[in-house]
Write a structure and sequence with these properties.
Elements lengths: L1 H9 L2 H6 L3 H4 L4 H8 L3 E12 L6 E12 L2 E14 L2 E9 L32
Antiparallel strand pairs: 1-2, 2-3, 3-4
């Protein structure tokens, strides 16, 4: 992931093409990328989360935020990238832009209900006090 960020920063379209999956490579135009690359200056990368991607894995994801600057001013690019192993090496296979965290479900405990800590007391006399 960091090498692909560096390639974006340096305008290295061939490297980006070489690190795409077969499926993704069909839609990538190196000349078009290199023409647009000069209009954006990448200024920072924050890796937020990674899953998979180990020696025994065939897939992995990287969630990141990349900061940039262009003619319109500062901007950010938030993405969860999917990587797969093809012919023994990791390649980019797709992305979800502006990924959202899973919705958290919180159950409300009434004051007179048993306390969820398991004490046997009413919530208002235990953890709700």
């Amino acid at each position: 992931m960091q090498s692909r960020y560096a390639a974006h920063s340096l305008g290295k379209g061939q490297y980006l093409s070489d690190t795409l999956s077969v499926k993704q490579r069909a839609d990538f135009d190196i000349a078009e990328f290199e023409e647009a690359a000069g209009q954006v200056k990448w200024v920072g990368l924050e890796i937020r989360e990674t899953t998979g991607g180990g020696e025994a894995d065939e897939t992995g994801t990287v969630e990141f935020v990349a900061r940039c600057r262009d003619k319109d001013g500062p901007g950010i690019h938030h993405e969860r990238s999917d990587f797969i192993r093809e012919d023994g090496r990791w390649v980019f296979d797709g992305a979800t832009f502006n990924p959202k965290a899973p919705t958290r479900r919180v159950e409300k405990v009434g004051r007179n209900e048993p306390c969820p800590c398991g004490s046997g007391k009413k919530f208002k006399k235990c953890c709700g006090a």
